[in-house]
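Notebook B, p. 112. Complex prediction, attempt 2.
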Amino acid sequence: MTTTTPRVASRWSRFRGSYLLYSFKRDLIAQLSLVVFIALVAVAVLAPWLAPMNPYDLAQIDIMASELPPFWVEGSDPTYLMGTDAQGRDLLSTILYGARVSLIIGFGAVALQALLGVSFGLLAGYLGGRVDAFLMRLADIQLSFSTLMVAIVVGALVKAIFGGATFSAYAVPLLVLIIGLAEWPQYARTVRASVLAERHKEYVDAARVMGFTSRRIMFRHILPNTLSPIFVISTVQVANAIISEAALSFLGLGMPETQPSLGSLIKSGFDYLQSGSWWITLIPGLVLVVLVLVINLLGDWLRDVLNPRLYKG
Amino acid sequence: MALLDVNHLDVRFALRRGDVQALRDVSFSLERGERLGIVGESGAGKSVAAFSLLNLIAKPGYIAGGSIHFDGRDLTRMSDRALRHVRGHRMSMIFQDPMMTLNPVLSIGDQMVECLKAHRRISTREARAIALRKLEQVQIPSPAARLDQYPHELSGGMRQRVIIAIALLLDPDIIIADEPTTALDVTIQAEIMALLLELCEKHNVGLILITHDLGVVSQVTQRMLVMYAGRVIEQGPTREIINAPQHPYTQGLINALPQMATPGSRLNQIPGSMPSLDNLPSGCAFHPRCGFVERADGTTRRACIDEVPGFVTSGNCRVACHMVAEMLDRERIPAEEIR
Amino acid sequence: MSSTAPAQAPGQAPEAASPLLEIRGLEKHFSLSGDFLEQLKFRKGRIVREQKHVHAINGVDLDIQRGEALCVVGESGCGKSTVARTVMGLLHPSAGEIRYDGQRIDDLSHKALMPYRRRMQMIFQNPYASLNPRMTIQQTLEEPIRLHHPDWSPQRVKQQVAEVMASVGIAADWGARYGHEFSGGQRQRIAIARALAVDPEFIVADEPISALDVSIQAQVLNLLMEAQQQRNLTYLFITHDLAVVEHFGTRVAVMYLGRVCEVAPTATLFARPRHPYTQALMSAIPRLEDDRPQHIRLEGEVPTPVNLPSGCVFHGRCPHADERCRREIPALIATADGGQVACHAVEEGRID
């Protein structure tokens, strides 16, 4: 990002002496959460190589092997470790692929939110006046609806306009767009608040006296100093986006069943809960809960560490 | 025995990198009605000294050793209940920021009444009468109206007057004032200091004035301590120290003032800056900045680098400096005799 | 006049005696009333628009000669920092004009102002806030040079940084470190280095030593004086500390409630303060040789700059105020010993 060549050694040594690492070493929950999170991300990313089957490949699906229970339940087939779903897909493989879809949508939506929210927040906070009033009233209006409701309305509209088939084909980018648009105000507000705090510090005045343009002051001077809160809310927002996607999918506005996310897997299994095939819903549900939980725990830890009132220096 | 007797006080802060010693071996005493100044730059430990006198050090700080005898009783061994009685009643404190003492949601009158009723069995009516009298003493314009005002309605100077009135409320023996006028303008500062001095003299109240301003100390106090990096390095009658400082740091501090140099010429600066308490130099903490580590003949005083200096008596003053000890050729005062 | 210095920089005004900076009739008001909707009030059955203003400065005239250090003193709220920030273009004046080297600069566009940005620099009060915490010292010092000399090679930029670091007594290996690793005095050195990096001729210093310890104040003041001698700088020095003024200033302007009440050469002002406020201010400095406070007692406190008093702004606290002082605003008049004072009593000869 910066112009000077990075001094790798000194950065590393600075990190090793930092408070961030110090508190991480003392926080067992943070360590466990990070391990679980990395493990989940790794298996999701490596799904095509790890998964015993490719759930997107219709040729590999054996409809006769549908609704088989996981290995510890009687009547299971050892080929399907976690059992199979109603269409006969290997549940373990489907979960791995589903987690991948969920994570892609989660991170993608947060990237979009951050792009919008950080830009609007910076503009509103630094320029103030009418720009600020307009952007923040917009955010207020949007926040007065539940974000999920906004997503449902936008999702339903998009689905109605493009039709089910097109929607299914572009489901991932469209969901990123929907969730990204629904949740940018959180970012914008946080960024604006910290920009307002930074804007009156003397280093900003010093930059103005030097004659730098507003754009350079915003991005080069103020933005790097608002990164800690951005970092903290990003973790929470990733968890929220994954949940939002799951909720949308559960309502039938999310990923199609042919490329299931964790949410649409839960939904597809929901119909079979009554017939005794509980694992189709419960196992992906458990994965979703664990994934969201570890992200939130990491976020909590980060917030405590980066809280400027607790940590000075 | 003096009214207040501090002996070999050690205060530490338990931090994650280990203990940091904020005060080392601080000893001084205060007679009834005497005014003492504690001078030092930021980080010298003067505010810690003030807080520890009332045993008000907040965690992670704690008193690690030494004693504070007030009126014959050791404050470091007192129960919380007895301490509360001493605070407020016998010793009160004035802070730099009046808002630390004033509760923003209570009127001035209510705060004063509450304070009085906590310590004395009197009616609200009597308490208000006392409060009004104290506000008159601190020369606040229209004192009766102030009782029903809130702290934010008053100017900075007026708030500090209210604080002084509250400090005087229970007729204490000692007032500890920690940089009471630093946040105020010069003209207001002069008035507040004059008021404080006048009240202390009139009611025979002792004053411990903590400040970085040597001018204020010379105007208000009779004796002074100079602190550097958690230790007292020089103490004695204010006039003598100001006119003829002996410790090289005190000399440097006074000579660095703009009024000590001809206008436009170079100021006599002390090189370097105060060391941080968790990384003190060996021997005398001032030796890396001191011009007297080398003798006039070019040889080095090893003691400055190796050994923490003890106090020697010089005139009416006590100085902790190897150079002064060598020049006077005096033995250091045995630790148990330092009061 | 002791303050004239030989003109040296290229592109300067033809007469060497013309002031470097002229401030004329400068006013700055801040609105207290918020935006349009918040200003609407319901009064006597009608909706009216009400606006309240803080009158931070009300008609300030000052000249700064080349090579001098003009100190502006006054208590908090007197508008001295607002003058500094308005001169540097951080605030837009409500009225009046500022001329630099004969050219009006308060209404220039960002682009047209750029050449002046290089010639005028500023040092701030709080060394803990004036350095960007996310930039190394090297980056902090290189940035302004790159901006103002886009054609310089990286080697030349580095060389300039090294020179300016050496001139303020910063070790070369500080460059890779961040601001928070240094003490207040060291940070203020870095801030001074940043201001000097683009070779300015005029520096506005807004309380540059107020946040520092006594022994460090002396170091920084010495540094500022050395820089003035070596680089022939002109200073506008804002402070509340009269002892520093006496040592540092060529001339002194005393401000009270947004107005200049006295301007004089430093020695003259300290030998014979004319304005009653200046006298009170000087008597209030705690001096080492005093055994007791010996100040002139003023009545009351500084009024708020929201509702300014009529006439002379000082009349409510002045022991010499009469009917005319309450009615009529005094103008700055020249005194016999080279200063200017805004006081009816001095003008009429009522006080010395």
